[in-house]
Amino acid sequence: MVTANRPTTVTSPTRGTVLIVLASAAFGFSGPMAKATMDAGMSPEQVASVRICLAAVLLLAGAAIVRPRSLHIRRRDLPLLLAYGLVGVAVVQLLYFVAVSRLPVGIAMLLEYTSPVLVTLWVRYVRHTALPRASWYGVALAMVGLGLVALSGAAWNGAPLNTIGVLAGLATSACAAGYFLLGERGVTAADPIGLGAWGLVVGAVAMLGISRPWDIPSRLWVAPTNFGPLHLPAWGLLTAMAVIATVLAYLASLASLRHLPPSVVSVVSLLEPIVATTLAWALLGQALAPAQVAGGAVLLAGAL
Fold it and tell me: For residues 212 and 287, what is the distance between their CA atoms, to the nearest angstrom?
């Protein structure tokens, strides 16, 4: 198993697995919920800003009341916290929503989840950790799967996949890899609740420079959204996204990194695109072409 130079203490593999499965299922709601909200009129920047800012307020207030000691951060850990908040919270969510606004949710998720490949490359060439030959077979398979997804999209729709959407999806993958690697280091220095709370605060401050929730027109807050059988106002869906797909998801994901190394966590989190694609099909009517499903299967098999 690939681990860091400062290995994660695997105290309870079962607990870690349960936590990352829960986190992946919760994260999987974000794409379909964001897509429904954007279809109602909000931009990717507005959705990302509201999601992060609301989640930051909820988690910071909850931690201050229930577990105030978790909010203590040592001065020497501030650079890590800033990097985690910017890369693992603000940029990754913004780019993902840009991808979702221009691509089917399933395709955006598949692009993001080439991140285990990037984690593998980082561990090998930056941490200089020897990897088994199967790892390189996996990298090759993932790249073949990614190519099949792009080419089948062109063949099925009669036009190439949106270039900006694809680039945003690939950039999201790099940020997601950073999330796992930075999160692994962060939970060795801070409580997962505190790391999640301050990371969301850093991400919220960054997003306020791009889009401020109070500048969003009131008509967009009450615009009806179509999320399967649910027809909620946009603010209701955004609140659910902040609670389920952000606060719960980040806490469970960070807590899992206390029990499992990032190489394992990033692979188990491949459940997220399966959840997101299924929800997008069931609730938004987004179906993938057979060739895209095959390409996605090859990509996920390579990452695994």
Answer: 33
